[in-house]
Input
Amino acid sequence: MITGAALPLDGTGGCPGGDPADRPRHDARDKATGAFRYAADLPCPGAWHVTLVRCPHPGARILGIDPAAALAAPGVRAVLTAADLPAERAGRRVRDQPLLAGEVALYSGEPVAAVLADTRREAEAAAALVEVSYEPLEAVFDPVVALDAASPLVHDSPWTYPGAVIGPGDGPNLQSVVTDGDPDRVSRALARAAHVVTATYRTPAGHQGYLEPQAWTAWPDGGCVRLRGTTKSPYRLREQVAATLGLEPADIDVEPVALGGDFGGKGSVVDPILCAAIARAVDHPVQLVLRSSEDLTATDARHPSVITVSLACDDDARLVALDFDAVFDGGAYASAKPVPSVNLHGAAEAALGYRFGCFALRSRVAYTHTVPKGHMRAPGAPQTVFAIESAMDELAVRAGVEPAELRRRNLLRSGEEDAYGHVWPDARGIDVLDAALSGAELGGSDLPPGWSAGRGVAFYCRPTPAPPATALALSRLPDGRFEVGVPVPETGTGSHSLVGQQMAAALGTDPANVEVRQLPTSALGFDPGVGASRVTAGMTAAVERLAAAWRDRPPGTDSLRIDVPAGDDGPALTCCAQVAHVAVDPGTGQIRLLELVSAVDVAEVLRRRSHQMQIDGGAVMGIGFARFEDLLEDGGQVWGSTLGEFKLPVAADLPRLRTVTVVGGKGVGPANIKAVGELTNVPAAAAVANAVADAVGVRLRDLPLSAEAVYWRLHPPGRDGR
Amino acid sequence: MVAIRLSLNGEETCVDAPVTASLLEVLREGGLTGTKEGCRIGVCGLCSVLVDGLPVSSCLLLAPCAEGREVWTVEGLAAARPDLADRFAAVEAMQCGICTPGQVVMAAAAQEAGAGEPDAGYLDGNLCRCTGYSTILEALRGSGRADG
Output
């Protein structure tokens, strides 16, 4: 029985340490000795500590705030409320969130006051003494209900917020809607199809689960402000701070720090803008370090989803129609969503990968009185793929065809046009699917007596975008070594080590002679930050350009800064297929995941260890989504408010992990990249759900997949006396 | 405030701390920031230290309870047993690295427990969100004591 640990990796992408060119990352030793410093480890002498007073109600009118007792407490310097700060709202795209709630607070956890004290201990003690009187409001928590005309409005006129993408006629409580395809054609195709499945799938709120709490320090500096902390996109943050505080981007310097995990969560902007505003209001440096439970309950959780899919095929198992209708719970503010659509790309790309015949797509994000939802590793894709890849298996059963064969018959081939009209020169879905199936070697030998075995497969593909515009600097140090200045924070993926390795190769020097340093926003041109799996392609393209400029530099130049335009060789389609083997106990419903095989579409691999850890870490995150992770939102409260209740996978939870890399793909940029960061976390949930259905005939359409759900389906209440 | 006398990373030390302070707070406020704050309820493993040779979540230990005891943090362990940190660095048993100090402390605890191949169960109480654990387990497997 495999219950203890992951086994060594095999396949062409495994065997870390086998490649002599793949040196350990430059920060490895400092990270292992504790010398490496994160935002909360850096000194900020004299800064006042900020503790936020948070509304306990999911929607409440604030009748009054009495700071007297808090102000009298030891060490307290100030208590600020909305009246003390700029009235302009904050957000990444839609600026709809106040820095502190003024008349009303819209979710449980929303900050209503800030206590500033000499020490963190004093600030926390005093925060408990701030008296706030509330009048709870009628609230709505279910995103589907929220879209109903009879529901209470979260915002009276959300279309008036800067950046809003909806209008007054679009219906109540809508953050955004994306539609695509041809609904009339889909209706006709569904009506005459040989086999049709229609089903609704649900996923709960989750969290990125980074382990380093978010942390910010802000220094006022004349009319300007300097910020240091946990952001994955410092240049965008600079613009967002400027927009809310009425400053120019050049008035703000953001000094990024290496992150203790991100996965999308460290793009949230309200806390850093709040810190900047507080520092300016009191004209003193301030520091805000969240507690882990604040991250879980009051930052930018993953969107819960309710997705209804209709999928149809003909007698030959050729798909003829997809109807995809998603409702996401966006929470009380749209502030944490960064993309122009204010929607989730995973949902907008629901019809990617297969020849669906025809498709219709609608993705709505609803306002509710819950914590604002943000982006997490392939935003919208885990939810979307869980729905579509589960429906694919349900359709296969109905059509009497093997699930893998249904996929094989309908996956896009190279040179074919997808549902959106894009032609993919390198569409290797079938190869990747077959690689995953051939990599699955586990037989029935691990099966406990009485348990049933099952196998499930699922597929995902996404575009790797062309290299983005970015900036980079190179200088020769007095000792003859080089320093590369990069705009992107190191989130942990090893991107800085990669830059050093690539630059050393381009300059013809040893990697030990190249230092990599993250520069503040005042030192470089614009970079879009970490996201959309674009860092490796962007940084490697920038390194090539900068190395060429360095070779042609005027005599006597010892430092260069360049702005790099966006590339045009992309996107490339990147595929991933996963096969899950499970054992299920029909007596108790218990599910054991025995093995997860990930087949990954690869062009060039630049750092094998980093690449493999992105695959493994993604797969384990996918397992967490499938089996455990649930913030337990109920009644507007996040009950999974600690890492004890919000369960992340530990080593003991792991199945045998296998990787098969399908080499030879055509990627983007001069380094020929297919991104890997947002792949293996996506299909795993459907693969496991499909395996459970294969094992005991129970189709679970809600995540996480639980023993209780299997049990009650196999032993319906009332049938045997219960 | 109370005065707490303890052996910290091999040195006899005296610190003043509020009676309600955790050992984690005292260590970090004293500049030993290698010990990270995570969940604060003893489930994530980020703040692991050795107390009298046993692994402890320093967020859950009141600092005055460390009186008279021998405490080792990642900084001290890395200096005293450089092979351990070297091993984690060599197999690159980290990505973001925020959990790595706690993992190194647990590998040291597994070494303390006996000779030979360390028990992988020593890592079951340490969360890692990045790596998928394979390289961390690899680092642990190679960290056994040969001398018994």
Summary: The CA atoms of residues 60 and 146 of chain B lie 33 Å apart. Chain B touches chain A through 58 residues (CB under 8 Å).
